[in-house]
Amino acid sequence: MNKTVNINLAGVFFHIDENAYTKLQHYLDAIKRSLTNTQGQDEIIADIEARIAELFNEKIKTDRQVIGSKEVDEVIAVLGQPEDYMLDEEIFEDEPVYNKTRSTGKQLFRDTEHSYVGGVSSGLGHYLGIAPIWVRILWIILTLASSGAFILIYIALWIFVPEAKTTADKLSMRGEEVNISNIERKIREEFENVSGRMKNVDYEKYGNQARSGATSAAKGVGSGILFLLNIFVKLIGVLILLIAGTTLIGLFIGLFTMGTFGLIDAPWTDYIEMTAIGAPLWLLSLLAFFAIGIPFFFLFILGLKILVKNLKTIGTPAKLVLLGLWLLSVIGLAVIGIQQATQRAFDGEVVITETLPVTATDTLYLAMQSNPKYTSGIRRGGVSIKYDENDNKVMYATDVRLVIKSTKDSLGRMEIIKMADGSDFRDARDRAESITYNTTFNNGKLYLDSFLTSPLQNHYREQEVRVVIYLPEGATLYADSNISNFHRSSDYYGNILNYNTEGKYLKIIENGYTCEDCEEEDGDWNNDSWEEDTEDPIEENGWETDSISGEVKVRLDENGIQINNRNSDKIRINKNGVAIQKT
Protein backbone atom coordinates (compact mmCIF):
# COMPACT_ATOMS: atom_id res chain seq x y z
CA MET A 1 0.00 0.00 0.00
CA ASN A 2 1.39 3.40 -1.01
CA LYS A 3 1.89 6.10 1.54
CA THR A 4 -0.39 9.13 1.52
CA VAL A 5 1.08 12.61 1.38
CA ASN A 6 -0.73 15.85 2.27
CA ILE A 7 0.09 18.68 -0.11
CA ASN A 8 -0.94 22.33 -0.42
CA LEU A 9 -1.67 23.61 -3.91
CA ALA A 10 -2.69 27.27 -4.17
CA GLY A 11 -3.97 27.21 -0.60
CA VAL A 12 -5.99 23.99 -1.04
CA PHE A 13 -5.06 20.78 0.77
CA PHE A 14 -5.16 17.40 -1.00
CA HIS A 15 -4.46 13.80 -0.04
CA ILE A 16 -2.21 12.21 -2.69
CA ASP A 17 -0.45 8.86 -2.76
CA GLU A 18 3.33 8.73 -2.87
CA ASN A 19 3.71 7.64 -6.51
CA ALA A 20 1.29 10.29 -7.75
CA TYR A 21 3.07 12.90 -5.62
CA THR A 22 6.44 11.95 -7.14
CA LYS A 23 5.01 12.21 -10.66
CA LEU A 24 3.42 15.58 -9.89
CA GLN A 25 6.64 16.86 -8.33
CA HIS A 26 8.67 15.86 -11.41
CA TYR A 27 6.11 17.57 -13.60
CA LEU A 28 6.30 20.83 -11.66
CA ASP A 29 10.11 20.67 -11.61
CA ALA A 30 10.14 20.23 -15.38
CA ILE A 31 7.91 23.29 -15.74
CA LYS A 32 10.23 25.31 -13.51
CA ARG A 33 13.27 24.26 -15.54
CA SER A 34 11.51 25.22 -18.75
CA LEU A 35 10.78 28.66 -17.35
CA THR A 36 14.35 29.40 -16.27
CA ASN A 37 15.27 33.01 -16.97
CA THR A 38 11.65 33.68 -17.99
CA GLN A 39 10.11 36.96 -16.94
CA GLY A 40 7.27 36.38 -14.44
CA GLN A 41 8.36 32.83 -13.59
CA ASP A 42 6.87 32.89 -10.08
CA GLU A 43 3.51 34.17 -11.31
CA ILE A 44 3.35 31.48 -14.01
CA ILE A 45 4.14 28.70 -11.51
CA ALA A 46 1.50 30.04 -9.07
CA ASP A 47 -1.18 30.11 -11.79
CA ILE A 48 -0.27 26.61 -12.97
CA GLU A 49 -0.56 25.30 -9.40
CA ALA A 50 -3.92 27.04 -9.05
CA ARG A 51 -5.10 25.40 -12.27
CA ILE A 52 -3.92 21.98 -11.05
CA ALA A 53 -5.79 22.52 -7.77
CA GLU A 54 -8.93 23.46 -9.71
CA LEU A 55 -8.70 20.30 -11.85
CA PHE A 56 -8.12 18.13 -8.76
CA ASN A 57 -11.21 19.64 -7.12
CA GLU A 58 -13.28 18.67 -10.16
CA LYS A 59 -12.13 15.06 -9.95
CA ILE A 60 -12.52 14.31 -6.24
CA LYS A 61 -15.97 13.65 -4.78
CA THR A 62 -15.18 13.74 -1.05
CA ASP A 63 -12.68 15.59 1.10
CA ARG A 64 -10.98 12.32 2.07
CA GLN A 65 -10.54 11.00 -1.45
CA VAL A 66 -6.89 10.35 -2.32
CA ILE A 67 -5.41 11.66 -5.57
CA GLY A 68 -3.83 8.82 -7.54
CA SER A 69 -1.58 8.54 -10.56
CA LYS A 70 -4.62 8.38 -12.84
CA GLU A 71 -5.82 11.81 -11.77
CA VAL A 72 -2.30 13.25 -12.13
CA ASP A 73 -2.01 11.85 -15.67
CA GLU A 74 -5.38 13.38 -16.60
CA VAL A 75 -4.28 16.78 -15.29
CA ILE A 76 -1.00 16.59 -17.20
CA ALA A 77 -2.94 15.66 -20.35
CA VAL A 78 -5.05 18.80 -19.96
CA LEU A 79 -2.14 21.16 -19.25
CA GLY A 80 0.36 19.54 -21.62
CA GLN A 81 4.04 18.74 -21.26
CA PRO A 82 6.55 21.59 -20.97
CA GLU A 83 8.60 20.12 -23.81
CA ASP A 84 5.69 20.54 -26.24
CA TYR A 85 5.54 24.30 -26.21
CA MET A 86 9.35 24.68 -25.70
CA LEU A 87 9.89 22.92 -29.01
CA ASP A 88 7.27 25.10 -30.64
CA GLU A 89 8.99 28.24 -29.41
CA GLU A 90 12.35 27.10 -30.76
CA ILE A 91 11.00 26.28 -34.22
CA PHE A 92 8.48 29.11 -34.55
CA GLU A 93 10.29 31.74 -32.57
CA ASP A 94 9.01 34.59 -34.75
CA GLU A 95 5.42 33.32 -34.80
CA PRO A 96 2.96 34.18 -32.06
CA VAL A 97 2.50 31.34 -29.61
CA TYR A 98 -1.25 31.87 -29.42
CA ASN A 99 -1.78 30.58 -32.97
CA LYS A 100 -2.05 27.15 -31.34
CA THR A 101 -4.65 28.26 -28.80
CA ARG A 102 -7.91 26.35 -28.89
CA SER A 103 -11.10 28.21 -28.10
CA THR A 104 -13.28 26.70 -25.38
CA GLY A 105 -16.58 27.70 -23.88
CA LYS A 106 -16.52 31.10 -22.21
CA GLN A 107 -17.29 31.54 -18.55
CA LEU A 108 -18.72 34.69 -17.02
CA PHE A 109 -16.36 36.52 -14.66
CA ARG A 110 -16.07 40.08 -13.46
CA ASP A 111 -13.14 41.76 -15.19
CA THR A 112 -11.92 44.12 -12.48
CA GLU A 113 -8.79 45.05 -14.44
CA HIS A 114 -10.87 46.98 -16.99
CA SER A 115 -13.72 48.11 -14.76
CA TYR A 116 -15.18 51.32 -13.42
CA VAL A 117 -17.33 49.89 -10.62
CA GLY A 118 -17.40 46.13 -10.16
CA GLY A 119 -16.27 44.69 -13.47
CA VAL A 120 -19.73 43.40 -14.42
CA SER A 121 -19.97 45.29 -17.71
CA SER A 122 -16.45 44.40 -18.86
CA GLY A 123 -17.04 40.75 -17.90
CA LEU A 124 -20.31 40.69 -19.86
CA GLY A 125 -18.46 42.28 -22.77
CA HIS A 126 -15.98 39.39 -22.86
CA TYR A 127 -18.79 36.86 -22.47
CA LEU A 128 -20.93 38.34 -25.26
CA GLY A 129 -18.00 39.20 -27.51
CA ILE A 130 -18.74 42.94 -27.65
CA ALA A 131 -16.98 46.03 -26.40
CA PRO A 132 -17.67 46.83 -22.72
CA ILE A 133 -18.70 50.38 -23.66
CA TRP A 134 -21.86 49.04 -25.35
CA VAL A 135 -22.74 47.01 -22.27
CA ARG A 136 -22.30 50.09 -20.08
CA ILE A 137 -24.52 52.16 -22.38
CA LEU A 138 -27.17 49.41 -22.25
CA TRP A 139 -27.05 49.40 -18.44
CA ILE A 140 -27.58 53.16 -18.37
CA ILE A 141 -30.56 52.96 -20.75
CA LEU A 142 -32.21 50.09 -18.84
CA THR A 143 -31.64 51.82 -15.50
CA LEU A 144 -33.24 55.05 -16.69
CA ALA A 145 -36.14 53.20 -18.35
CA SER A 146 -36.88 51.20 -15.19
CA SER A 147 -36.53 54.16 -12.81
CA GLY A 148 -33.42 52.65 -11.26
CA ALA A 149 -34.77 49.11 -10.81
CA PHE A 150 -31.98 47.54 -12.92
CA ILE A 151 -29.45 48.72 -10.36
CA LEU A 152 -30.63 45.81 -8.17
CA ILE A 153 -29.89 43.35 -11.01
CA TYR A 154 -26.43 44.90 -11.42
CA ILE A 155 -25.80 44.52 -7.68
CA ALA A 156 -26.97 40.89 -7.82
CA LEU A 157 -24.53 40.16 -10.66
CA TRP A 158 -21.80 41.92 -8.70
CA ILE A 159 -22.48 39.65 -5.72
CA PHE A 160 -22.95 36.30 -7.46
CA VAL A 161 -20.55 36.51 -10.43
CA PRO A 162 -16.97 35.70 -9.31
CA GLU A 163 -14.02 37.94 -10.06
CA ALA A 164 -11.38 36.80 -12.57
CA LYS A 165 -8.44 36.73 -10.14
CA THR A 166 -6.13 34.06 -11.53
CA THR A 167 -4.70 33.73 -15.00
CA ALA A 168 -6.82 30.60 -15.49
CA ASP A 169 -9.94 32.64 -14.73
CA LYS A 170 -8.90 35.31 -17.21
CA LEU A 171 -8.31 32.70 -19.91
CA SER A 172 -11.70 31.07 -19.21
CA MET A 173 -13.32 34.49 -19.34
CA ARG A 174 -12.04 34.89 -22.91
CA GLY A 175 -12.86 31.32 -23.91
CA GLU A 176 -9.23 30.18 -24.21
CA GLU A 177 -7.93 26.78 -23.18
CA VAL A 178 -6.25 26.78 -19.78
CA ASN A 179 -2.90 25.03 -20.29
CA ILE A 180 0.73 25.77 -19.52
CA SER A 181 1.37 27.46 -22.84
CA ASN A 182 -1.57 29.84 -22.52
CA ILE A 183 -0.84 30.58 -18.87
CA GLU A 184 2.76 31.48 -19.70
CA ARG A 185 1.63 33.56 -22.67
CA LYS A 186 -0.90 35.43 -20.54
CA ILE A 187 1.69 36.23 -17.89
CA ARG A 188 4.10 37.45 -20.55
CA GLU A 189 1.39 39.63 -22.07
CA GLU A 190 0.73 41.21 -18.70
CA PHE A 191 4.40 42.05 -18.31
CA GLU A 192 4.50 43.39 -21.84
CA ASN A 193 1.48 45.55 -21.01
CA VAL A 194 3.43 47.10 -18.15
CA SER A 195 6.40 47.80 -20.45
CA GLY A 196 4.17 49.29 -23.16
CA ARG A 197 4.40 46.45 -25.71
CA MET A 198 0.84 45.16 -25.45
CA LYS A 199 -0.85 47.16 -28.16
CA ASN A 200 0.43 45.55 -31.35
CA VAL A 201 0.38 42.09 -29.79
CA ASP A 202 -3.26 42.56 -28.86
CA TYR A 203 -4.26 43.50 -32.40
CA GLU A 204 -2.53 40.50 -33.86
CA LYS A 205 -3.77 38.19 -31.11
CA TYR A 206 -7.43 39.12 -31.51
CA GLY A 207 -7.09 39.08 -35.28
CA ASN A 208 -5.71 35.56 -35.14
CA GLN A 209 -8.46 34.53 -32.75
CA ALA A 210 -11.10 35.92 -35.10
CA ARG A 211 -9.58 34.07 -38.07
CA SER A 212 -9.34 30.90 -35.99
CA GLY A 213 -12.96 31.23 -34.88
CA ALA A 214 -14.15 31.80 -38.44
CA THR A 215 -12.23 28.76 -39.64
CA SER A 216 -13.64 26.59 -36.86
CA ALA A 217 -17.20 27.77 -37.57
CA ALA A 218 -16.86 26.79 -41.20
CA LYS A 219 -15.64 23.27 -40.46
CA GLY A 220 -18.98 21.71 -39.74
CA VAL A 221 -22.69 22.20 -39.31
CA GLY A 222 -22.49 20.60 -35.90
CA SER A 223 -20.55 23.49 -34.40
CA GLY A 224 -23.08 25.94 -35.83
CA ILE A 225 -26.01 24.01 -34.38
CA LEU A 226 -24.34 23.86 -30.98
CA PHE A 227 -23.68 27.57 -31.18
CA LEU A 228 -27.33 28.32 -32.00
CA LEU A 229 -28.52 26.05 -29.21
CA ASN A 230 -26.17 27.78 -26.81
CA ILE A 231 -27.51 31.18 -27.87
CA PHE A 232 -31.08 29.92 -27.44
CA VAL A 233 -30.31 28.65 -23.94
CA LYS A 234 -28.66 31.94 -23.05
CA LEU A 235 -31.70 33.86 -24.29
CA ILE A 236 -33.91 31.69 -22.09
CA GLY A 237 -31.61 32.48 -19.20
CA VAL A 238 -31.85 36.21 -19.91
CA LEU A 239 -35.65 35.95 -20.16
CA ILE A 240 -35.88 34.08 -16.85
CA LEU A 241 -33.53 36.62 -15.30
CA LEU A 242 -35.61 39.59 -16.47
CA ILE A 243 -38.96 38.07 -15.45
CA ALA A 244 -37.74 36.98 -12.03
CA GLY A 245 -35.85 40.23 -11.41
CA THR A 246 -38.79 42.41 -12.43
CA THR A 247 -41.16 40.38 -10.25
CA LEU A 248 -38.87 40.63 -7.24
CA ILE A 249 -38.51 44.37 -7.70
CA GLY A 250 -42.28 44.76 -8.02
CA LEU A 251 -42.89 42.66 -4.91
CA PHE A 252 -40.30 44.61 -2.98
CA ILE A 253 -41.84 47.94 -3.91
CA GLY A 254 -45.49 46.86 -3.73
CA LEU A 255 -45.53 44.73 -0.59
CA PHE A 256 -42.85 46.40 1.50
CA THR A 257 -43.14 50.07 0.61
CA MET A 258 -46.96 50.36 0.47
CA GLY A 259 -48.51 49.69 3.82
CA THR A 260 -46.01 47.33 5.42
CA PHE A 261 -43.64 49.92 6.85
CA GLY A 262 -45.99 52.87 6.37
CA LEU A 263 -43.72 54.60 3.85
CA ILE A 264 -46.72 55.27 1.60
CA ASP A 265 -50.22 55.76 3.00
CA ALA A 266 -52.21 53.98 0.30
CA PRO A 267 -56.01 54.32 0.59
CA TRP A 268 -56.63 50.75 -0.49
CA THR A 269 -54.91 49.40 2.63
CA ASP A 270 -58.10 50.16 4.59
CA TYR A 271 -60.09 47.98 2.19
CA ILE A 272 -57.67 45.11 2.71
CA GLU A 273 -58.06 45.41 6.46
CA MET A 274 -61.85 45.71 6.07
CA THR A 275 -62.09 42.37 4.24
CA ALA A 276 -59.42 40.57 6.30
CA ILE A 277 -59.98 38.42 9.35
CA GLY A 278 -58.05 40.63 11.74
CA ALA A 279 -54.49 39.73 10.66
CA PRO A 280 -52.36 42.90 10.37
CA LEU A 281 -51.48 44.12 6.91
CA TRP A 282 -47.73 43.93 7.52
CA LEU A 283 -48.03 40.22 8.34
CA LEU A 284 -50.07 39.53 5.21
CA SER A 285 -47.53 41.50 3.17
CA LEU A 286 -44.56 39.56 4.55
CA LEU A 287 -46.25 36.20 4.05
CA ALA A 288 -47.20 37.09 0.48
CA PHE A 289 -43.70 38.45 -0.22
CA PHE A 290 -41.99 35.27 0.95
CA ALA A 291 -44.55 32.91 -0.62
CA ILE A 292 -44.25 34.57 -4.04
CA GLY A 293 -40.78 36.09 -3.88
CA ILE A 294 -38.74 33.05 -2.80
CA PRO A 295 -39.69 30.91 -5.86
CA PHE A 296 -38.89 33.86 -8.12
CA PHE A 297 -35.58 34.32 -6.27
CA PHE A 298 -34.62 30.74 -7.13
CA LEU A 299 -35.74 31.41 -10.71
CA PHE A 300 -33.40 34.41 -10.68
CA ILE A 301 -30.56 32.15 -9.50
CA LEU A 302 -31.48 29.64 -12.23
CA GLY A 303 -31.23 32.37 -14.86
CA LEU A 304 -27.82 33.35 -13.52
CA LYS A 305 -26.64 29.73 -13.55
CA ILE A 306 -27.67 29.40 -17.19
CA LEU A 307 -25.52 32.42 -17.99
CA VAL A 308 -22.71 31.80 -15.49
CA LYS A 309 -21.33 28.28 -15.35
CA ASN A 310 -19.12 28.93 -12.33
CA LEU A 311 -21.71 30.88 -10.35
CA LYS A 312 -21.16 31.09 -6.62
CA THR A 313 -23.71 29.07 -4.71
CA ILE A 314 -25.68 30.67 -1.90
CA GLY A 315 -24.93 27.64 0.25
CA THR A 316 -27.04 24.84 1.66
CA PRO A 317 -27.87 26.64 4.94
CA ALA A 318 -29.25 29.63 3.03
CA LYS A 319 -31.30 27.33 0.79
CA LEU A 320 -32.76 25.54 3.80
CA VAL A 321 -33.61 28.85 5.50
CA LEU A 322 -35.36 30.12 2.37
CA LEU A 323 -37.21 26.83 1.96
CA GLY A 324 -38.35 26.99 5.58
CA LEU A 325 -39.53 30.60 5.17
CA TRP A 326 -41.44 29.65 2.04
CA LEU A 327 -43.16 26.70 3.71
CA LEU A 328 -44.09 28.80 6.74
CA SER A 329 -45.45 31.55 4.48
CA VAL A 330 -47.54 29.14 2.41
CA ILE A 331 -48.88 27.47 5.55
CA GLY A 332 -49.63 30.87 7.09
CA LEU A 333 -51.52 32.06 4.00
CA ALA A 334 -53.41 28.76 3.87
CA VAL A 335 -54.43 29.12 7.52
CA ILE A 336 -55.57 32.71 6.91
CA GLY A 337 -57.50 31.60 3.83
CA ILE A 338 -59.25 28.83 5.78
CA GLN A 339 -60.09 31.26 8.57
CA GLN A 340 -61.42 33.70 5.99
CA ALA A 341 -63.70 30.98 4.62
CA THR A 342 -64.91 29.98 8.08
CA GLN A 343 -65.73 33.62 8.84
CA ARG A 344 -68.41 33.41 6.12
CA ALA A 345 -69.66 29.89 6.80
CA PHE A 346 -72.93 30.90 8.50
CA ASP A 347 -75.50 33.59 7.80
CA GLY A 348 -77.70 35.33 10.29
CA GLU A 349 -80.44 37.92 10.15
CA VAL A 350 -82.33 40.30 12.38
CA VAL A 351 -85.92 41.31 11.50
CA ILE A 352 -87.38 44.61 12.66
CA THR A 353 -91.14 45.08 12.04
CA GLU A 354 -92.74 48.52 12.02
CA THR A 355 -96.37 49.54 11.42
CA LEU A 356 -97.08 51.88 8.54
CA PRO A 357 -100.12 54.16 9.06
CA VAL A 358 -101.37 53.48 5.54
CA THR A 359 -104.95 52.27 4.98
CA ALA A 360 -106.79 51.05 1.90
CA THR A 361 -107.84 54.62 1.06
CA ASP A 362 -104.43 56.24 1.50
CA THR A 363 -101.67 57.03 -0.94
CA LEU A 364 -98.06 56.21 -0.04
CA TYR A 365 -95.24 58.22 -1.57
CA LEU A 366 -92.06 56.10 -1.59
CA ALA A 367 -88.51 57.31 -2.28
CA MET A 368 -84.88 56.54 -1.42
CA GLN A 369 -82.70 59.08 0.37
CA SER A 370 -78.94 59.56 0.64
CA ASN A 371 -76.74 61.22 3.23
CA PRO A 372 -74.78 64.15 1.77
CA LYS A 373 -72.05 63.53 4.34
CA TYR A 374 -71.33 60.21 2.67
CA THR A 375 -72.36 60.74 -0.95
CA SER A 376 -75.01 62.51 -2.98
CA GLY A 377 -75.56 59.63 -5.39
CA ILE A 378 -78.30 57.04 -5.01
CA ARG A 379 -77.44 53.72 -6.56
CA ARG A 380 -77.46 50.14 -5.36
CA GLY A 381 -74.34 48.01 -5.02
CA GLY A 382 -70.85 48.75 -3.73
CA VAL A 383 -68.82 48.92 -0.51
CA SER A 384 -66.52 51.70 0.63
CA ILE A 385 -65.10 53.35 3.73
CA LYS A 386 -66.54 56.65 4.95
CA TYR A 387 -66.25 58.89 8.00
CA ASP A 388 -69.27 59.39 10.25
CA GLU A 389 -70.27 62.55 12.11
CA ASN A 390 -67.64 61.76 14.77
CA ASP A 391 -64.91 61.32 12.12
CA ASN A 392 -64.73 57.60 12.79
CA LYS A 393 -64.23 55.18 9.93
CA VAL A 394 -67.32 53.14 9.08
CA MET A 395 -68.14 50.60 6.41
CA TYR A 396 -70.55 52.15 3.91
CA ALA A 397 -72.52 49.78 1.66
CA THR A 398 -75.45 50.27 -0.72
CA ASP A 399 -76.57 46.66 -0.81
CA VAL A 400 -80.22 47.52 -0.06
CA ARG A 401 -83.07 45.60 -1.67
CA LEU A 402 -86.70 46.81 -1.81
CA VAL A 403 -89.69 44.46 -2.02
CA ILE A 404 -93.35 45.55 -2.33
CA LYS A 405 -96.13 43.11 -1.39
CA SER A 406 -99.90 43.31 -0.90
CA THR A 407 -101.71 42.42 2.31
CA LYS A 408 -105.32 41.98 3.38
CA ASP A 409 -104.63 43.72 6.69
CA SER A 410 -106.21 47.10 7.29
CA LEU A 411 -102.85 48.76 7.98
CA GLY A 412 -99.58 48.47 6.17
CA ARG A 413 -96.37 47.35 7.77
CA MET A 414 -92.66 47.37 7.01
CA GLU A 415 -90.08 44.67 7.72
CA ILE A 416 -86.39 45.65 7.83
CA ILE A 417 -84.30 42.50 7.50
CA LYS A 418 -80.60 42.95 8.33
CA MET A 419 -78.35 40.12 7.15
CA ALA A 420 -74.65 39.25 7.51
CA ASP A 421 -72.27 36.27 7.46
CA GLY A 422 -70.19 35.00 10.36
CA SER A 423 -68.15 32.14 11.77
CA ASP A 424 -71.25 30.82 13.57
CA PHE A 425 -74.91 31.75 13.93
CA ARG A 426 -74.32 34.00 16.91
CA ASP A 427 -71.44 35.84 15.23
CA ALA A 428 -73.52 36.33 12.07
CA ARG A 429 -76.47 37.61 14.11
CA ASP A 430 -74.27 40.02 16.07
CA ARG A 431 -72.84 41.43 12.85
CA ALA A 432 -76.37 41.84 11.48
CA GLU A 433 -77.47 43.67 14.63
CA SER A 434 -74.55 46.10 14.29
CA ILE A 435 -75.89 47.32 10.92
CA THR A 436 -77.27 50.86 11.04
CA TYR A 437 -80.21 51.54 8.72
CA ASN A 438 -82.75 54.36 8.98
CA THR A 439 -86.17 55.16 7.52
CA THR A 440 -88.37 58.25 7.78
CA PHE A 441 -92.20 58.43 7.54
CA ASN A 442 -94.00 61.76 7.51
CA ASN A 443 -97.40 62.76 6.11
CA GLY A 444 -97.78 59.71 3.92
CA LYS A 445 -94.23 59.92 2.59
CA LEU A 446 -91.80 57.10 3.32
CA TYR A 447 -88.07 57.72 2.81
CA LEU A 448 -85.69 54.76 2.89
CA ASP A 449 -81.93 55.07 3.27
CA SER A 450 -80.15 53.99 0.10
CA PHE A 451 -77.23 52.76 2.20
CA LEU A 452 -76.27 50.96 5.36
CA THR A 453 -73.33 51.45 7.71
CA SER A 454 -71.47 49.17 10.07
CA PRO A 455 -68.44 49.58 12.36
CA LEU A 456 -65.20 48.99 10.46
CA GLN A 457 -63.92 46.50 13.04
CA ASN A 458 -66.74 44.12 12.08
CA HIS A 459 -65.13 43.76 8.62
CA TYR A 460 -67.05 43.15 5.43
CA ARG A 461 -69.12 39.98 5.74
CA GLU A 462 -71.80 40.36 3.04
CA GLN A 463 -73.82 42.84 5.09
CA GLU A 464 -77.17 43.50 3.41
CA VAL A 465 -80.56 45.06 4.17
CA ARG A 466 -83.86 43.95 2.65
CA VAL A 467 -86.89 46.21 3.15
CA VAL A 468 -90.27 44.53 2.62
CA ILE A 469 -93.29 46.88 2.50
CA TYR A 470 -96.78 45.38 2.86
CA LEU A 471 -99.54 47.67 1.51
CA PRO A 472 -103.28 47.05 2.09
CA GLU A 473 -105.30 46.12 -0.98
CA GLY A 474 -106.93 49.27 -2.29
CA ALA A 475 -104.09 51.58 -1.23
CA THR A 476 -102.27 53.66 -3.83
CA LEU A 477 -98.49 53.66 -4.29
CA TYR A 478 -96.49 56.40 -5.95
CA ALA A 479 -92.82 55.37 -6.23
CA ASP A 480 -90.06 57.85 -7.00
CA SER A 481 -87.80 57.12 -9.96
CA ASN A 482 -84.74 56.75 -7.69
CA ILE A 483 -85.99 53.39 -6.36
CA SER A 484 -85.61 51.62 -9.71
CA ASN A 485 -82.15 50.21 -8.90
CA PHE A 486 -83.29 48.86 -5.56
CA HIS A 487 -86.35 46.79 -6.48
CA ARG A 488 -85.08 45.44 -9.79
CA SER A 489 -84.64 41.64 -9.97
CA SER A 490 -86.73 41.15 -6.82
CA ASP A 491 -89.25 38.71 -8.33
CA TYR A 492 -87.62 35.91 -6.34
CA TYR A 493 -88.79 37.63 -3.14
CA GLY A 494 -92.39 38.06 -4.35
CA ASN A 495 -92.06 41.69 -5.38
CA ILE A 496 -95.19 42.90 -7.19
CA LEU A 497 -93.68 46.17 -8.42
CA ASN A 498 -92.78 46.10 -12.07
CA TYR A 499 -89.83 47.86 -13.64
CA ASN A 500 -90.57 51.24 -15.29
CA THR A 501 -93.64 51.80 -13.12
CA GLU A 502 -91.92 54.53 -11.12
CA GLY A 503 -93.61 57.92 -11.31
CA LYS A 504 -97.12 56.42 -11.74
CA TYR A 505 -100.06 55.94 -9.38
CA LEU A 506 -100.55 52.23 -8.75
CA LYS A 507 -103.61 50.83 -6.94
CA ILE A 508 -102.68 47.75 -4.98
CA ILE A 509 -104.75 44.63 -5.61
CA GLU A 510 -104.23 41.05 -4.54
CA ASN A 511 -100.69 40.06 -5.60
CA GLY A 512 -100.49 42.94 -8.05
CA TYR A 513 -101.62 46.41 -8.97
CA THR A 514 -103.58 48.44 -11.50
CA CYS A 515 -102.10 51.56 -13.01
CA GLU A 516 -104.37 54.58 -12.63
CA ASP A 517 -102.56 56.97 -14.98
CA CYS A 518 -100.89 54.63 -17.47
CA GLU A 519 -101.51 54.50 -21.21
CA GLU A 520 -104.33 52.17 -22.22
CA GLU A 521 -101.98 49.64 -23.81
CA ASP A 522 -100.04 49.39 -20.58
CA GLY A 523 -103.10 47.82 -18.93
CA ASP A 524 -103.00 46.24 -15.54
CA TRP A 525 -100.47 43.86 -14.06
CA ASN A 526 -101.37 40.95 -11.90
CA ASN A 527 -99.45 37.82 -11.09
CA ASP A 528 -102.65 35.76 -11.56
CA SER A 529 -104.14 37.66 -14.52
CA TRP A 530 -102.73 35.42 -17.28
CA GLU A 531 -105.24 32.81 -18.39
CA GLU A 532 -103.79 29.85 -20.22
CA ASP A 533 -107.06 29.22 -22.14
CA THR A 534 -107.17 32.72 -23.67
CA GLU A 535 -108.06 32.37 -27.35
CA ASP A 536 -105.53 33.59 -29.89
CA PRO A 537 -107.07 36.38 -32.03
CA ILE A 538 -104.88 35.32 -34.96
CA GLU A 539 -106.40 31.85 -34.91
CA GLU A 540 -109.96 33.31 -35.02
CA ASN A 541 -109.85 36.06 -37.62
CA GLY A 542 -106.33 36.16 -38.95
CA TRP A 543 -104.21 39.27 -39.31
CA GLU A 544 -103.83 41.48 -42.34
CA THR A 545 -101.94 44.69 -43.11
CA ASP A 546 -101.15 46.90 -46.09
CA SER A 547 -97.98 48.75 -46.95
CA ILE A 548 -98.06 52.53 -46.91
CA SER A 549 -98.45 52.71 -50.70
CA GLY A 550 -101.03 49.92 -50.77
CA GLU A 551 -99.01 47.96 -53.31
CA VAL A 552 -98.24 45.06 -50.95
CA LYS A 553 -100.63 43.16 -48.68
CA VAL A 554 -99.57 40.66 -46.03
CA ARG A 555 -102.09 38.27 -44.43
CA LEU A 556 -101.36 35.92 -41.54
CA ASP A 557 -103.95 33.26 -40.65
CA GLU A 558 -104.23 29.59 -39.77
CA ASN A 559 -103.39 28.67 -43.38
CA GLY A 560 -100.00 30.38 -43.28
CA ILE A 561 -98.56 33.63 -44.62
CA GLN A 562 -99.67 35.15 -47.91
CA ILE A 563 -97.89 38.10 -49.58
CA ASN A 564 -99.68 39.81 -52.51
CA ASN A 565 -98.15 42.38 -54.81
CA ARG A 566 -100.53 44.00 -57.32
CA ASN A 567 -97.90 44.27 -60.04
CA SER A 568 -95.97 41.03 -59.56
CA ASP A 569 -96.12 37.58 -57.99
CA LYS A 570 -98.01 36.12 -55.05
CA ILE A 571 -96.14 34.20 -52.38
CA ARG A 572 -97.70 31.75 -49.88
CA ILE A 573 -95.78 30.14 -47.04
CA ASN A 574 -97.36 27.29 -45.05
CA LYS A 575 -96.57 23.87 -43.66
CA ASN A 576 -96.27 22.45 -47.17
CA GLY A 577 -93.49 24.85 -48.13
CA VAL A 578 -93.24 28.00 -50.25
CA ALA A 579 -95.50 28.51 -53.32
CA ILE A 580 -94.97 31.30 -55.88
CA GLN A 581 -97.80 32.19 -58.28
CA LYS A 582 -96.88 34.16 -61.41
CA THR A 583 -99.25 36.96 -62.46
TrEMBL record:
The chain crosses the membrane at residues 137-161, 235-261, 281-308, 320-338. Keywords: Cell membrane, Membrane, Transmembrane, Transmembrane helix. It is a single-pass membrane protein. It comes from Antarcticibacterium arcticum. InterPro entries: Phageshock_PspC_N, PspC, PspC-rel_TM, PspC-rel_ToastRack. It comes from the Bacteria. It is found in: Cell membrane. This is PspC domain-containing protein. Residues 203-343 form the PspC-related transmembrane region domain. Residues 520-543 are annotated as: Disordered. GO terms for cellular component: plasma membrane. Residues 106-164 form the Phage shock protein PspC N-terminal domain. The keyword Transmembrane helix applies. The keyword Cell membrane applies. Residues 387-520 form the PspC-related ToastRack domain.
